Amino acid sequence: MNTFPSVNQMAWDLVKQLIAEKQFYRVNVEQTHNGATVIDAGLTAVGGFEAGCIITEICMGGLGRATLSLKQYGDLHLPSITVYTDNPAVATLGAQFAGWRMKEGDSIAIGSGPGRAIALKPKEIYQEINYKDEADHAVLVLETNRPPSNELVNRIADACHVKPENLALILVPTACPAGLTQVTGRVVETGIHKLRTLGLNPNVIRNACGYAPIPPLTENFETAMARTNDAILYGGVVYCTVDLEDEETLRAIVEKATSKASRDYGKPFIQIFEEAGRDFYRVDHNLFAPAKLLVNSLRTGRLLTAGEVNAHVLKASIGLHA
Q1: Confidence (pLDDT) at 162
Q2: Which of 12, 81, 10 is closest to 238 using CA atoms?
Q3: Who contacts 19 (Cβ-Cβ below 8 Å, separation ≥6)?
Q4: End-to-end CA distance of the chain, in Å?
Q5: Is residue 322 part of a domain?
């Protein structure tokens, strides 16, 4: 497996920046009893857009960039995050993908970020993209509503083959400004993961960029979770360049790679979730894709497109009427 570049080493440099400028990013930094660094970006800390952007870049292992702007969706204006990378397979699937579920008592934390590339969570992804990281430091972002116990910190450090003092954990619940920002900052990862599930080898994706709206803040986790899903499903746009000889196969994949291909398309996610008995596994898996996809075929120069931004559902998602 390819071990260069080290996504954890590059992310560690960003973590040092986050710590050094903690007042600017409005995060809290503490050391656990066993020496790990824990950065709170929204449990008790204020956080914000800036924290969300740098956490997005940390999640991508330093192989991507994130910027903020205000974009228009129909007649709706919302703050939006734009992400881009020239190393899409490793940046998104190898680092950013939320592929490490951890259970601690009644609490479930979802781990994403470059630490996964050492622990190989899940292993099959790293076999597909031919990547494995080796580093003296490990960085993980936890979507959680509570600080980790020392036992969980030790389990993560062991899985990442580092000492606890060389482990950095960034805590960011969904229902906070940084959380909304970094979750919608997964728009490109969502698109690439969808292409992968439809049979496209992620290694043929050469460049990728995309944007998605950041929905209004709510303190209710379920509402925040639903709004961030809608932001990507109905407002997320992804562009990538693909080097694949068989363009007809690529075209067929692209046509199925947006949320519009799902039987559940067209309703706010909170409604879909309730109709599924609040069980994610009963939601049509085809729904989890960006609203619009544009693929530049490097072999022919053609631009293949599918899907569309749906401002009507975006407005309904945040309680506005068309």
Answers
A1: 97
A2: 81
A3: 29, 37, 39
A4: 51
A5: no
Residue whose C-alpha is closest to residue 181's, from 20, 71, 292, 47? 47
- Give the helix, strand, coil percentages of the chain, each rounded to 5: 40, 25, 35
Contact between 185 and 179 under an 8 Å Cβ cutoff? The reply is no
Distance CA 246, CA 271 (A): 39
pLDDT, tens digit (0-9, with 9 covering 90-100), for 103-121: 877 667 899 999 999 999 9
| Cα–Cα distance for residue pair 93/96, rounded to 1 Å | 6
How far are the Cα atoms of 79, 113, 137, 145, 232 from residue 177, in angstroms, in the given order?
A: 11, 19, 27, 14, 16
Q: Are 175 and 224 in contact (CB under 8 A)?
A: yes
The backbone torsions φ and ψ at residue 265, rounded to the nearest 5 degrees and listed phi first, read -60, 145
What distance in Å separates the CA atoms of residue 213 and residue 216, rounded to the nearest whole number?
A: 9
Q: What is the pTM of this model?
A: 0.96
| Structural domain of 111 | 7-317
Tens of pLDDT, residue by residue over 191-236, are 999 999 999 999 999 999 999 999 999 989 999 999 999 999 999 9
Cα separation values, 59 from 55, 132, 150, 189, 204, Å: 6, 16, 22, 11, 22
Structural domain count, the chain: 1
CATH number of the domain encompassing residue 136: 3.30.1030.10
pLDDT tens by residue, 14-61: 999 999 999 999 999 999 999 999 999 999 999 999 999 999 999 999
Residue 152 placed within a domain: yes
Pinpoint the alpha helices (H) of the chain. 7-20, 22-25, 49-59, 88, 116-119, 123-129, 150-159, 177-184, 187-197, 221-235, 247-255, 269-275, 311-317
Say if 57 falls within a structural domain: yes
Estimate the crossing angle of helix 49-59 against helix 177-184, to 10 degrees: 40
pLDDT for res 225? 96
Both tokens of 225, joined, read 């979770």
Q: Is residue 149 assigned to a domain?
A: yes
Tokens 């734009």: give the residue. Answer: 82
Sorting pLDDT into bands at 50, 70 and 90, what band is 318? Answer: very high
